[in-house]
Amino acid sequence: DILVDGKVCDCDAVVTCQVGDPVPLQVKLTNWSKHSVGPFALTMMPYQDYQNGVHNYDLQDAITFVGSNTFYIDTVKPTKDSVYFGALLFLYTGDFYLNIKFHEDNCSRELPLSWLCLPSVHIRATEPVA
């Protein structure tokens, strides 16, 4: 589950926020399997989609994270969940997207890291209301 500014996000919905206001993010990973899972790393990466196949991830002048954009998850037991909180601060108006990825954080494996990607979250940063 992904919540942006307290609202559950749907991959088809656009979340609107104001430039200069921190936007709270909450990501909840629920383990529905019969076995414990982990360790994982959860990474959130904002980007702009230029609608021509190009994604701009170089947004340090437009967006900043309040806190970290990567969280480490040790183990999630069966039927339990793990919730992570963060916030984004938009410095300019525009349409932005947020990739949220979980990847294995176990360096003892010989196989390549596997990724679980959630649908991108669409966030529109608008001018503050005067």
TrEMBL record:
Gene Ontology cellular-component terms listed: trans-Golgi network
Domain (Trs120/TRAPPC9 fourth Ig-like): give its ranges. 15-125
Instruction: Tell me the InterPro entries matching this sequence.
Output: Ig_TRAPPC9_Trs120_4th, Trs120_TRAPPC9
Which superkingdom is the protein from?
Eukaryota
This chain belongs to the protein called TPPC9 protein
Record organism: Panurus biarmicus (Bearded tit)
